[in-house]
């Protein structure tokens, strides 16, 4: 059910509020382009600056607009276990197919604290849960041993692996139970993780190249690894451009300049690209024939 190109969906804003018309247009475009699952309210969706009410409404809106055509994995993580449970419960109530829960940031819990955090969530909410391990943002990482323990819990079905460390990924997959889903959370290592049993990616670049990202995974799973590898390397310059500054600043700007969202707005503390990187992005999109807003 959860396989292929799963987009870490951006959240469009207009005059400081969520632009639901633009969000609906993104949902329909992704489905038409072959995106395999939508992941609203993750890091790329600026969840950190959404109020809880907005967070719940965005997830509910996406679920309603998708109408069961592809899975919706709701971002629900928090550094407060109680808040993470609240967001997970809300996702379940509106019909999300699974939820994505990040390692608690700032608190810097121990491995036992991390285990107890996720166990408390899955005990409280009977909804498939995908762990999100991204130490570059949270300052903590689930050890392979802790990941193995968590994989035995009934509602923990997989991990969004965003360390970018292939050695770690291999050691983690050595510890988890059979059938545990390995989902890339790092576009640069998405293809490599397939060799370890990966099932796809929760992708930033899929916001602007949904068809290509879908086709890379579809080709791989169909046995055409040569074509999958070719697409991966064709997308590599896009991956680099999407991380010239903190995600989601570049990808949201790219979506705007490609005409996919009508307004380019962030919420502080995120701010627009520097003038040098904005020029670099626009020149890159123009070179690819994708620049629509001059």
Automatic annotation (TrEMBL):
Subcellular location: Cytoplasm
SMART domains with a match to the protein in the record: DHDPS
Gene3D superfamilies: Aldolase class I (3.20.20.70)
TM region(s), chain numbering: 188-209
Source species taxonomy: Bacteria, Pseudomonadati, Spirochaetota, Spirochaetia, Brevinematales
EC number: 4.3.3.7
Highest taxon of source: Bacteria
Family classification: Belongs to the DapA family.
HAMAP family the UniProt entry points to: DapA (MF_00418)
Pathway(s): Amino-acid biosynthesis; L-lysine biosynthesis via DAP pathway; (S)-tetrahydrodipicolinate from L-aspartate: step 3/4
Site note Part of a proton relay during catalysis, residues: 43, 106
GO cellular component, one term: cytosol
Subunit structure: Homotetramer; dimer of dimers.
UniProt binding sites for pyruvate: 44, 202
Keyword list, A-Z: Amino-acid biosynthesis, Cytoplasm, Diaminopimelate biosynthesis, Lyase, Lysine biosynthesis, Membrane, Schiff base, Transmembrane, Transmembrane helix
Identification of the protein by name: 4-hydroxy-tetrahydrodipicolinate synthase
Gene behind this protein: dapA
Function text: Catalyzes the condensation of (S)-aspartate-beta-semialdehyde [(S)-ASA] and pyruvate to 4-hydroxy-tetrahydrodipicolinate (HTPA).
Residues of the signal peptide: none
Catalytic function, reaction form: L-aspartate 4-semialdehyde + pyruvate = (2S,4S)-4-hydroxy-2,3,4,5-tetrahydrodipicolinate + H2O + H(+)
Active-site residues per Swiss-Prot or TrEMBL entry: 132, 160
Annotated positions for site L-lysine inhibitor binding: 48, 79, 83, 105-106
A single GO BP: lysine biosynthetic process via diaminopimelate
One GO MF term: 4-hydroxy-tetrahydrodipicolinate synthase activity
Pfam families, sorted: DHDPS (PF00701)
């Amino acid at each position: 059910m959860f396989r292929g190109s799963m987009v870490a969906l951006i959240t469009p804003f207009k005059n400081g509020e969520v632009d639901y018309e633009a969000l609906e247009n993104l949902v329909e475009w992704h489905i038409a382009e072959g995106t395999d699952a939508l992941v609203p309210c993750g890091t790329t969706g600026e969840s950190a600056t959404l109020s809880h009410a907005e967070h719940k409404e965005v997830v509910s809106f996406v679920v309603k607009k998708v109408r069961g055509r592809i899975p919706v994995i709701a971002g629900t993580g928090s550094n407060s276990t109680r808040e993470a449970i609240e967001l997970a419960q809300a996702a379940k109530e509106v019909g999300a197919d699974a939820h994505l829960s990040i390692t608690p940031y700032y608190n810097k819990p121990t491995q036992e604290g991390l285990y107890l955090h996720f166990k408390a969530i899955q005990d409280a909410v009977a909804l498939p849960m995908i762990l999100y391990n991204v130490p570059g943002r949270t300052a903590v990482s689930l050890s392979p041993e802790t990941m193995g323990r968590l994989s035995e819990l009934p509602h923990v079905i997989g991990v969004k692996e965003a360390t970018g460390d292939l050695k770690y990924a291999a050691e983690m997959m050595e510890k988890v139970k059979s059938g545990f889903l390995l989902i890339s959370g790092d576009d640069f290592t998405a293809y490599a993780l397939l060799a370890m049993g990966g099932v796809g990616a929760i992708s930033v670049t899929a916001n602007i190249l949904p068809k290509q990202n879908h086709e890379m995974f579809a080709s791989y799973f169909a046995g055409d690894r040569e074509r999958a590898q070719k697409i991966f390397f064709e997308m590599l310059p896009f991956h680099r451009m999407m991380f010239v500054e903190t995600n989601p600043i570049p990808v949201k700007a790219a979506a705007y300049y490609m005409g996919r969202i009508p307004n380019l707005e962030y919420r502080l503390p995120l701010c627009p690209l520097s003038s040098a990187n904005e020029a670099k992005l626009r020149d890159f999109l123009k070179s690819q024939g994708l620049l629509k807003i001059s």
